[in-house]
């Protein structure tokens, strides 16, 4: 295997990836080496790896990996990679975009249900043997506005439409999509905010989306509307959201992503009425490594055959 493509699996759970590489029939073409995240690639590995799969890389490492041509990031978000001052210009970076499609749409719909169906309050009533009949607001006819109609957003739209919700949203290229009544350009975000009973944020973290949901945009939402952020924590102006929920300018918010994770215990999101903090549970699931492994092996097959890779990061766009 002297001419085999060498890939470093820099992960604490290499088994699904090694198994997938073997199942894909790549064992004769690829030499995969596993390395725990607590360890650092050796000088020999830095000098000879063609590809690498990892969550992140410390400053100073990538310039030492002189043969490295491709990195498969283990996550969909790549803002940390793109912020690296020493990210080689000629290095192909691919992300794990789309690997949350089994779990995240369901969890987003669950969050919407949580706002309309008071099962939590009923469970609290049960603790004190309290019989309180509560009204379950129907989702029928309600409008879901999705900012960022990518793969996940389109899956959410499909499920929401099956619940007889009206779905609208924004997309950088506003072409018609199944299950979406209106696809608008990002410049018409305020139109989406004004119409929506639920606003779902699925935008990437870029310079253009930092503090995107600021006081001005929050003011366009209905006072009965809920904000749900399953995109990136940097999208929201934290202080503006706290002010909007505290003053009842909006009904409330369910947040799954934050600027700093874990969310510091001193952060006011924990205690602000109307804000529900989720511990970044939107995407992870028990078999996600197997799903990511299929993407890795697909790209690895393409890589050894000199074919275009999937989910290549557009550095200019930021995702």
Topology, element by element:
Blueprint: E1 5-10, H1 15-23, E2 30-35, H2 43-48, E3 51-54, E4 70-73, H3 79-82, E5 92-94, H4 104-116, H5 119-127, E6 143-147, H6 151-162, E7 166-170, E8 182-184, H7 189-195, E9 198-201, H8 215-218, E10 226-229, H9 238-246, E11 252-255, E12 275-277, H10 288-304
Parallel strand pairs: 1-2, 1-3, 3-4, 4-5, 6-7, 6-9, 7-8, 9-10, 10-11, 11-12
Helix pairs in contact: 1-10, 4-6
Please provide a written account of the structure.
The chain has 319 residues and is α/β, with parallel strands linked by helices. It folds into two domains: 5-99 and 286-304, NAD(P)-binding Rossmann-like Domain (Rossmann fold), CATH 3.40.50.720; 104-277, 3-Layer(aba) Sandwich (Rossmann fold), CATH 3.40.50.720. It has ten helices and twelve strands. The chain has helices at 15-23, 43-48, 79-82, 104-116, 119-127, 151-162, 189-195, 215-218, 238-246, 288-304, and strands spanning 5-10, 30-35, 51-54, 70-73, 92-94, 143-147, 166-170, 182-184, 198-201, 226-229, 252-255, 275-277. The strands form two sheets. Strands 8-7-6-9-10-11-12 form a seven-stranded parallel β-sheet, with helices on both faces. The protein has a five-stranded parallel β-sheet with strand order 2-1-3-4-5, covered by helices on one side. α8 links the parallel β9 (198-201) and β10. α4 packs across α6. The model has no long low-confidence stretch (mean pLDDT 97).
Q: Top keywords for this entry?
A:
about 325 residues, alpha/beta, Rossmann fold, 2 domains, 5-stranded parallel sheet
């Amino acid at each position: 295997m002297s001419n085999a493509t060498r890939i470093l699996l820099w992960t604490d759970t290499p088994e699904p990836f090694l198994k997938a590489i073997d199942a894909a029939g790549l064992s004769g073409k690829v030499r995969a080496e596993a390395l725990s995240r607590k360890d650092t690639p050796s000088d020999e590995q830095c000098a000879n790896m063609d590809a690498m799969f990892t969550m992140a890389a410390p400053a100073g490492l990538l310039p030492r990996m002189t043969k490295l041509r491709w990195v498969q990031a283990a996550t969909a978000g790549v803002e940390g990679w793109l912020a690296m001052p020493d990210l080689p210009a000629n290095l192909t970076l691919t992300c794990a975009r789309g690997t949350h499609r089994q779990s995240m749409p369901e969890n987003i719909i669950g969050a919407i249900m949580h706002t309309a169906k008071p099962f939590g309050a009923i469970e609290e009533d049960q603790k004190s043997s309290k019989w309180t009949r509560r009204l379950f607001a129907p989702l029928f006819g309600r409008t879901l506005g999705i900012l960022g109609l990518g793969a996940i957003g389109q899956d959410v739209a499909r499920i929401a439409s099956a619940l007889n919700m009206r779905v609208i949203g924004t997309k950088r290229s506003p072409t018609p999509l199944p299950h979406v009544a209106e696809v608008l350009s990002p410049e018409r975000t305020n139109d989406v905010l004004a119409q929506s009973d639920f606003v779902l944020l699925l935008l990437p973290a870029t310079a253009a989306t930092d503090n995107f949901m600021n006081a001005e945009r929050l003011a366009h939402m209905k006072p009965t509307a809920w904000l749900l952020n399953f995109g990136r924590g940097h999208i929201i102006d934290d202080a503006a959201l706290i002010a909007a929920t505290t003053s009842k300018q909006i009904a409330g918010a369910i947040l799954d992503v934050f600027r700093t994770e874990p969310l510091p215990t001193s952060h006011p999101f924990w205690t602000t009425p109307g804000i529900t903090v989720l511990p970044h549970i939107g995407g992870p699931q028990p078999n996600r490594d197997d799903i990511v492994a299929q993407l890795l092996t697909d790209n690895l097959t393409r890589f050894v055959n000199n074919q275009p890779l999937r989910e290549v990061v557009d550095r200019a766009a930021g995702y």
